[in-house]
Amino acid sequence: MDRFDTSVAHPARRYNYWLGGKDHFAADRESGDLLAKAFPTALIAARENRDFLRRSVRFLASQGVQQFLDIGTGLPVPDNTHEIAQRIDPTARVLYADNDPIVMTHSRALTIGSPEGRTGYVEADVRAPEVILGHPELKAVLDLSEPVALLLVAVLHFVHDDDEATRVVGELLAALPPGSYLVASNLTLDYAPPAQVAKHEELLASGRTDARARNRAEFGRFFEGLELVDPGIVAVSDWRPAAEERPSAQDVAIYGAVGRLPS
To answer: Does pTM top 0.70 for this prediction?
Structure first.
């Protein structure tokens, strides 16, 4: 199959469509519109998830974290990880990874950061952590002897098998030193009414959605052995929110959390 098969929807391009970007095709728009019709708050969820990424990176950079490994980065939108981190610490280093070859064509925008810092891009799938960890670009950008923030934001729900997803997280964290962090988010149906749960299962079974919802316990497995940063596992809109008024956990339907590898 052509690596640039635009007739098949891709999560990165659908997400770009929901966030108001321009880098998507008819299949991505059709998929996005189908899901938004079934789940009217999908666009709210996409925006809140992006805001969670911004707040978590800002928090970690303010805590002295200087290195970020952002897997499933998607297409560039305003306030990419390196822009947020380098605004606080110009020496911050960021490596992006994504499996969408179209993201590769935009990698220049993702790899232009501050002169004092360093950015890079790897085309790889989260399901193959050994490829990411062994890539020369990672070694050129990141120093794995120093703490790294691993960002798996809205990407693990595309790995449907729980054991495989847990393996991926475990292998990535095993390569990082104490004091590193995991930032992750995942679709959940914990707050959804039965009709919405049934609709999601129907779409998942028919292949019309590619996101696997997880309950709180299933999502919490990714953080076993880590020290959760307050407020722990919550809807992404409730993780250190910037505003008092925000969407409900039911409308957002995405869990988020930040955990630290103990020293």
So the answer is: yes
